[in-house]
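Good morning,

Both structures are done.
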Amino acid sequence: MSASWKSLAQLDAAVSECRACPRLVQWREEVARTKRAAFADQTYWGRPVPGFGPDDASLAIVGLAPAAHGANRTGRMFTGDRSGDVLYQALYDVGLASQPTATHRDDGLTLRGTRITAPVHCAPPANKPTPGERDTCRHWLADELALLRPTLKVVLVLGAFGWQALLPVLADAGWTIPRPKPKFGHDVRVTLQGPTPLHLLGCYHVSQQNTFTGTLTPAMLRSVLSEAASLAGLP
């Protein structure tokens, strides 16, 4: 962990100023300038999106990357798009969010014992970061998990991209990754040994493709979140 980060607030401020990936910088800022017609009167965030949630979280949820007209507009993970609508409703249903909707950074939403983050903090074209962009952004995730380590008990990963990005970060942080490496799947659960036991859970991503086709239903999402909350000691 970088010695300069004394708190998640400091880390989040640094994340929001990152300009390390030229393609992502160009895309996120172009989207913020041109906007979607429905949001033409709004000022887009247009910067890297930091994690969201308390600094003593026992449950971390790892997604993919901000959406161009969601978090890239609102400045908060999974806020302002349909994926977020599904996720925050489910978090509210199982008692981890203070309200079922997430519309903007100042809407009053808080999370209980839960931190939401991503392996890539900038909105990528076509929602597809390159491997190089993933690796360049990796140190932010490593530092965030290091700051959460004293209380972290569970990591719930939304989608295969986040799963693949997270495993080497956990290995570098001292957790033992089984060999062969555990494969991503919905409702997969692995307990990692390391500084403290860490429960790693998989869940299909809350993308529109998955939720519209029924690949991930609200009941499936609530079930995985409930299991994660229980393992994290969040009744």
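Second structure follows.
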Amino acid sequence: MISMPAKRPPVPLSRERIIEAALHIADGQGLRRLTMRRLGDALQVEAMAIYHHLPRGKEALMDALAEHVTAVQVEQHPTWQETARAWCRASREALREHPGVLALALTKPPKGATALAVKEQVEQLADGGLPDAAEAVRTLRAFVFGSVAVEVQQSGWADPDVDEWVRRDERADIDFERGLDALLKGLQT
């Protein structure tokens, strides 16, 4: 008697698995190619099963993807400058990691975990002694988002004629650090 190998039970669907699969599609094929049907196929479930975890459907998915790359938190550092620098670097990495959802990060207003992360950032900088921490956080966010947008644009990620897009650009790292230094100096005055 030949015994058949036991079939592995399917991995249960979760919000985290849905977001991970959606990020994979968006980063590999672009946001336009991310449909609920394609996401269902990637997860090996009916598209309707996704709505159990994201009742508002595609809108909730877009919010969750934006949150995933913008709800960045860092530990409080001894000075507000060090905290701000750590947050900017971590935010940049989160955005660079998922260029497919950069457009969402740039256009979705901060909600949920992102709004909490921004509030925490303001509190950390204020606790670190920065007088107008809320204005500083808006300025730092604008710098990070803008620099990553330029970096992704120059990387060739969205160009269909580019075979291999540049994930790491030493020049971009230097430009980012120079800009961050100048910004932090400006916020001190």
